[in-house]
Amino acid sequence: MNSESENLKRLLLEFLTFDRSASPPSGSKSTTLTESNPSAVCASEVGSDAVSFDTLFETGQSFHFGDKTTVQDRFHTLLKHRFQTEFANRPPLFPWEAEVREYPAEVPAYAQSMSRMWLENPLQFSVSSKLPETVLHRLLDRCQNMVQSTQKQGVKLVQIVESLFPDSLDALEPIANIVLTPAYRSGSALAEATLQEVENLAGGFDQATPEQQIALTMLASMEIMSALALTVSAEESTVGRDWVTSEGVVHVDVNYSGAVLIINATLPTGGSIQLVGADSDSQSSRPEAGMLTLAQTAPVIGASYSLEVSLDNDGQRPLRFSLMVLDPSVS
Questions:
Q1: What CATH number is attached to the domain comprising 319?
Q2: pLDDT value at residue 18
Q3: Between 204 and 329, where is the model more confident?
Q4: Are residues 297 and 259 in contact, defined by beta-carbon separation less than 8 angstroms?
Q5: Whole-angstrom Cα distance, residue 21 to residue 85?
Q6: Closest CA to 263 of 249, 251, 252
Q7: Which run of H or of E encompasses 294?
Q8: Which neighbouring-strand residues pair with 310?
Q9: Which of 64, 218, 309, 311 is in Cβ range 3.0-4.6 Å of 271 for a Cys bridge?
């Protein structure tokens, strides 16, 4: 049997195995009974499933199936119609979906600028100010997540910057060790040396070597996490923090006295504060600028609380501080 006969034989088998209940799209032409429903003709002609396919093929050859290209186009049309019907009745799922979900046609513009107003403060830091805002934006989000982690500082730094340097993963841990070397814990010596090298480059951060960029982002991460960490104890019972925003300055005061944790936050606009922990989930809000207060009785010593500050600015994520009451007897 030549190749053309083989192709026709295969096409006929595809027609016979196709779902006969699917109706063809309206408006399609049908010149002969065989073209409109070839499987029905073949089935009536054969009359039994016991008939061999060769006999069926020879019988099919006695009918006029029309031009082979026309038959193929007809088959593709039927197949497309079948797929459209299946997808309409049972849409396919993405691998992460358990059921059909609706997704927005467009991502809101504010989603691309989340936390932008919180960048004003780290832009005033000595190292963070040297980073592009796109990099700083990602660091701020990552630092807010990692500042509450109980992992070692070096592990935190690696996890914060690893998504920025996917091609330099092997270099992250050695550079983190250098950044955290005791002689450089203040960050001043290493930061000054690295900043000087980068400032001497015409293109700044973008023209720095990957090692220089990694060192800068890790130093900036340490600056940001230090600003986000609020710790008090019986010996050092108060701590305050100012955070500059595009709306004004947010001032936070934390006082630990008599086994009661008191938080005062002065906001430049209306907004809210929320304290979240294993034993706490309290919130306070106001519609205009002013002070908000929260109190937590008998806070868990050594536990990390999340203090979230939100301003009435649509589309902005809250700024999350890490708040911890330390036991001074534990070094």
A1: 2.60.40
A2: 52
A3: 204
A4: yes
A5: 12
A6: 252
A7: strand 290-297
A8: 272
A9: 311
What are the tokens at 270? 């209306």
The count of domains in the chain is: 3
The residue type at 72: Q
Beta strands at 229-233 and 319-326: parallel, antiparallel or unpaired: parallel
Separation CA 77–CA 228 (nearest Å): 61
Among the ranges given (28-37, 193-202, 288-297), the one the predictor scored with the smallest mean pLDDT: 28-37
* 170: in domain: yes
**pLDDT number for residue 191:** 59
Provide the pLDDT for residue 76.
81
Q: Which amino acid is at 170?
A: D
In sequence order, the β-bridge partners of residue 257 are 260
Measured distance CA(24)–CA(182) in Å, rounded: 77
For 230-263, the pLDDT digits (tens) are 999 989 999 999 999 989 999 999 999 888 999 9
pTM of the complete model beyond 0.90: no
150 and 71, same structural domain?
Answer: no
CA distances from 77 to 40, 71, 172, 321 (A): 18, 10, 55, 60
CA atoms of 173 and 66, how far apart (whole Å): 70
Identify the domain boundary among 171, 205, 229: 229
Looking at the structure, tell me whether residues 148 and 73 fall in a common domain.
no
Residues 10 and 64 in one domain: yes
Higher pLDDT pick, 256 / 317 = 256
Residues 223 and 133 in one domain: yes
Find where tokens 């002969």 sit. 32
Tell me whether residue 305 is in a domain. yes
Q: Which residue, 71, 86, 62, 64, is CA-closest to 29?
A: 71
What is d(CA 139, CA 217) in angstroms, rounded to the nearest whole number? Answer: 8
The amino acid at residue 262 is: I
Mean pLDDT within 83-111: 64
Residue found under tokens 């691998």 = 95
Say how far apart CA 9 and CA 228 lie, in whole Å.
73
Say yes or no: 127 and 215 in one domain: yes
- The answer to whether residues 171 and 202 belong to one domain is yes
In terms of residue numbers, what domain contains 159? 116-229
